[in-house]
Amino acid sequence: MVTVMEIYQLLPKTNCKKCGESTCMAFAVSLLGRKKQVVECTPLLEENFKKQKEKLETILLPCAGAQETGMIVHTELCTGCGNCVVACPVDVANDPHGAGMGCAPTNDKVIFKVIDGKVVASNIKECRRFGKNKVLCYACIDPCPTGAIEFV
Amino acid sequence: MFTCTGCALLCEDIEAIVENNRIKEIRNACRRGAARMKGCMNRLVPSIAQKPADIESSIKKAAQILRNAKSPMLFGFDNSTSEAQIKGIQLARKINAIIDDTSSFCQGILIENILHKKLRTCSLDDIRNKADVLVYWGSDAQDSQPRHLSRFSYFPRGESRQRGYEEDRLAIAIDVRESNTAKICKGHFYRIPLKGDREFILALMEALSGKAPAYDTKNMLGLASILKKAQFGGIFVGIGLTYSIKNDFEILTALADMLPKFNIMPMVGHYNMRGFNEVLFKETGFVNRVRFEGNGVQDNKYAIIEALKNKSIDALVVVGSDPVLSLPRIVIPHLASIPVVCIDPCQTFTSGIATVNIPSAASGVESSGSAVRMDGKVIGLKKILENNYLSDEDIMKRLMEAV
Amino acid sequence: MGIDIGKFLKNPEFEILITTYRDIFQVEALEKDRFGEEYMKLSAVISLSKNDLQKMGFKPGDRVKLSNNYGSVVVEVKESKKNEPGGLAFMINSPWANSLISDETDGKGIPEFKHVKAKISLSKEQITPIVVLIGTFYK
User: Fold this and answer.
1) Chain B / chain C CB contacts < 8 angstroms
2) Which of A42, A47, B127, C110 is deepest in the core (most CB within 10 A)?
3) Do the Cβ atoms of A102 and A85 come closer than 8 Å?
């Protein structure tokens, strides 16, 4: 789980207030709570902050998932077994002959991908827990042998 | 798409992102497979007497060791392509050597029974398409063959099992501990004591024949009832069960006879162990522990552990295996006292004491060939990276020329 | 009625039964670097149930000496992840476990990898490093 200090370390730390918050620390808290976007810090869009901006976008990704659907993947627990990929009803519907069968995905509409042996969540908004007709779906949690998927 | 060599599932849907002739990213393989495909940190370098040498001299020295030996043994091959295994057997034949693989202290006895058609078996594709009852016995597939349940046995929908694990399949685990696999078989986990498989099987057989066994009556009757209703079942025999019943293996045959709808599937770790067993079986009628003196003769004394215990070999060639890692420490002293030739892509504990080290290509990444999946299906391996390493097959050929 | 010697022994020894198993994270460490810290951290371990830990007076993180007729090693004690009832200890397949495996095979080539009797006691020594386990074989 990314911490507010990890986010803060990547910010300009000038307290310029261009984002609308009084300090960079306050902005870091807003980012963690998904109340603000990285691009609202205009200094980060400059060339000399390119690396920090990219790193921020990467580490804030699981949070993005957590906010919208509450899903977090604990990578250090994941064995890459693919149970969640094939159990996910969205994967079965969107990719019946690929991810829906436990094989490699044949398109990009899947929610779970296995990269370097660990699950990476993508297309989180396709998840049944998101959107107007959301349901409390547990299809990916139950089959996980190590409890690597969590909904917060 | 490439084939993973992490275990004997040989998943063929692996994508590799290559950059600067190195694998930058592996997709779709499990954690174990990804680690295998990306390779180890310490590649083996050619050496003689633990001092760096060029590869030609190392091969020559290895050949010399084999020529001078009265009782040489070739061991390993479970991480080699079938083509390399065939060449290894030819080499053993040429020099009247013993040849053995890790199956002699692993699943050899199970595979032997399957190849002799004493146990009914089927393909993993059949399991996916038809199986409704799955029994993981002494097997923690989730740790050893991680994509077994997601690609084949439990989770996916199949032709006759369109509603997959949710409604069409039942998974049962029988083990001495609650493994990760047992955790998935919620409500159908049977915990048995160590070495308790024989008693369990006898009680189950009683229950299957309509009697109420004294042992764990309620559970046995319940399990028998589930198994009897199965339309197409799979018993996945892990090393836990094999080790437990190794001295009376026919108890499994007896149980299988009472379950005509069930198929016995070996759970194999090394990616081409079954390949070695099949290739040797085709050549000699035996799956392991063979000595060539003209024809191939099988005897327990040719198993690696017996040969080391009895100090009956005087030279050892190790191909893609690490006996100093895997064998009981108490049998290692003899191995350390004889000339050892180690052929491997990586540095291992065995290469650290070997007389000659010959680096080889990592098969499925740096060399191509074929392998046999745990259910007997032949799968092709492709080369992913351009390289200058000799494949196991090449090294066997060179040794044959040089002995 | 005899004297309870156990009361006076500062470092009690217990007989345990060990079985071996495989773990994907340890296999990953093996594939990457079998000489490394991660492999040792995941392998030089014995897992006991909560009940057994209490009975024997060990805490997770303690170092223990395991010994039998075939060898001895010092490893770290952990608590079993799942609810194990006790009476059985678990070690991952590794050179540490292999130090305790007997070579009794009935002449059939298969040792008892999954059925190991050993004595366990608290130890102040370091966890046996791989270089000690294997290094004695180096020429």
Assistant:
1) 145
2) B127
3) yes
Evaluate whether A77 touches A146 at the Cβ level (below 8 Å). Answer: yes
Chain B CB contacts of A143 under 8 Å are 149-150, 155, 165, 184
Q: Is B150's Cβ below 8 Å from some Cβ in A? A: yes
CATH 3.40.50.740 fits B42-103+272-363+388-402, yes or no: yes
The matching CATH number, chosen from 2.60.120.560, 2.20.25.10, 2.40.40.20, 3.50.50.60, for C13-135 is 2.40.40.20
The answer to whether residue A117 neighbours chain C at the CB level (below 8 Å) is yes
Question: How far is C38 from chain A, CA to nearest CA, in Å?
Answer: 13
Going by their DSSP bridges, the two strands B133-137 and B378-381 should be labelled as unpaired
Q: Where are the domains of chain C?
A: 13-135
> d(Cα A149, Cα A111) in Å, to the nearest integer?
13
User: pLDDT tens across A54-84, in order?
Assistant: 888 878 765 554 545 678 889 999 999 999 9
Strand partners, B73: B98, B316
- The candidate with the shortest Cα–Cα distance to C103, out of B268, B144, B157, B335, is B335
| pLDDT > 60? residue B379 | yes
pLDDT on residue B183: 94
B42-103+272-363+388-402 and B108-266, same CATH topology: no
B291 touching C (Cβ < 8 Å) = no
**B354-382 mean pLDDT:** 98
Which residues on B lie below 8 Å from A93 (Cβ)? none
When CB atoms are compared, the residue of B41, B352, B353 closest to C32 is B41
> Which portions of chain C are predicted below pLDDT 50?
none
Q: Does C88 touch chain B (CB under 8 A)?
A: yes
- Which class in CATH covers the domain with range B108-266? alpha beta
Go through the domains of chain A in sequence order and give each one's CATH number: 4-59 (1.10.15.40), 69-151 (3.30.70.20)
Tracing tokens 């501990």 back to the chain, one arrives at B177
Q: Is C8 helix (H, G, I), strand (E, B) or coil?
A: helix
Q: What is the pLDDT of residue C3?
A: 59
Q: Reduce the DSSP state of residue B183 to 3 states and report it.
A: helix
The predicted structure's pLDDT at residue B143: 97
Query: Contact, A47 vs A53, CB < 8 A?
Result: no
Contacts of A116 in chain B (CB under 8 A): 25-26, 34, 38
Q: Which of B32, B142, B353 sits opposite C137 (nearest CB)?
A: B353
Please list the helix, strand and coil fractions of chain B in percent, rounded to the nearest 5, in that order: 40, 20, 40
Distance CA B323, CA B341 (A): 12
pLDDT at position A133, please? 78
Say yes or no: ipTM exceeds 0.90.
Answer: yes
For residue range B109-150, list pLDDT tens digits in order.
Answer: 999 999 999 999 999 999 999 999 999 999 999 999 999 999
Residue B221 confidence (pLDDT) above 60: yes
Q: Give kind and range of the element (H or E) at residue A121.
A: strand A118-121
Two tokens at B390?
Answer: 């000799």
Residue with tokens 């049998």: B331
HEC assignment per residue over C88-133: CEEEECCHHHHCCCCCCCCCCCCCCCCCEEEEEEECCCCCCCHHHH
For chain B, domain boundaries: 42-103+272-363+388-402, 108-266
Q: Do C27 and B347 touch (CB under 8 A)?
A: no
Q: Is C103 close to B348, i.e. CB distance below 8 A?
A: no
**pLDDT score recorded for residue A63:** 54
- By mean pLDDT, which of A133-137, B44-48, B137-141, C109-113 is the weakest? A133-137
Q: What tens digit of pLDDT does each residue of C80-90 get?
A: 988 889 999 99
